[in-house]
Amino acid sequence: MNWGIVGHGHLGSALAARFARQNIAFRHLSAQLWDQGKDLPQPEDALLLAVPDGCIVEVARQLQQRGHLGPVFHCSGATPLSALEPLPQAGVWYPMQSFRDVEVPWGSFPIYWENNLLEPVLKDLHQKLGIPLGQWMTSERRATNHLSAVWANNFPTHLVALYQDFCRQKGVEPMASMFLDSVTQALEGDARALQTGPARRRDMATLARHMEALPPELRSIYEALSESIARLDSSNS
After folding, report:
1. Phi-psi region of 57 (alpha: psi -120 to 50; beta: other; left: phi over 0)
2. Which pLDDT tens digits describe the chain residue by residue (237 residues)?
3. Where would a tag sit more exposed on the chain, N or C end, judged by fewer CB atoms within 10 A?
4. 212-215, Cβ contacts within 8 angstroms, sequence gap of 24 or more
5. Would you give the end-to-end CA distance of the chain in angstroms?
6. Which residues lie across from 6 on neighbouring strands?
């Protein structure tokens, strides 16, 4: 079976690098060129759609119009399998990993499958890629896992970025060790019980001074987080 990887973003590039390293024959395609009659997959090719979530339905529509018959898998955590409904062989191949570079620790993170009718195709793919088999998961459950991954990955990274910007603006050395200690203790224990600070103490004077000292673009975030801490603490009372 011939494979095609559609998309040249982080995931598509990482997949292409892995396919090449494992000596798997494939074509790296761009759906943006299909209207020009370029980069078109063969009708029987198996495809991995490493495209933005908002493009999946349109790419599936184009493939259906071109009479694509081979297996097509989208790689989205938040998009249901039904997005590929026009296609005769549709499935999901979702790696729950943040792709920032072409080199990723393949085999160290879960990959979720959907549509057990395509199990032989997926087993063969994983064998060729040299990685453990995936786990079957419904669209609804996969979307929940994807949301949890956003909480675990995207939001903490964003908070650190805001913190680093603040420290640069104020000429303060970032306290990386405090971040690491706080996260480690929270994950290993009861994060609610470990919460400290002026928001939990209802120290309104300190909160007001902090708000005044913050750049305007950070005040709404500080206020929302402080209110959330206070609400969570109240629910424990």
Report:
1. alpha
2. 899 999 999 999 999 999 999 999 999 999 989 888 888 999 999 999 999 999 999 999 999 999 999 999 999 999 999 999 989 999 999 999 999 989 999 999 999 999 999 999 999 999 999 999 999 999 999 999 999 999 999 999 999 999 999 999 999 999 999 989 999 999 999 999 999 999 999 999 999 999 999 999 999 999 999 999 999 988 876
3. C
4. 214/166, 215/166, 215/169
5. 60
6. 29, 49
Q: How is residue 130 written in tokens?
A: 């040299």
| CATH 3.30.300.30, applies to 3-138 | no
Per DSSP, the three-state class of 182 is helix
List, by residue range, all CATH 1.10.1040.20 domains of the chain.
142-236
Q: What is the pTM of this model?
A: 0.88
What CATH fold (topology level) applies to the domain 142-236?
N-(1-d-carboxylethyl)-l-norvaline Dehydrogenase; domain 2 (1.10.1040)
CB contact at 8 A, 134 and 156: no
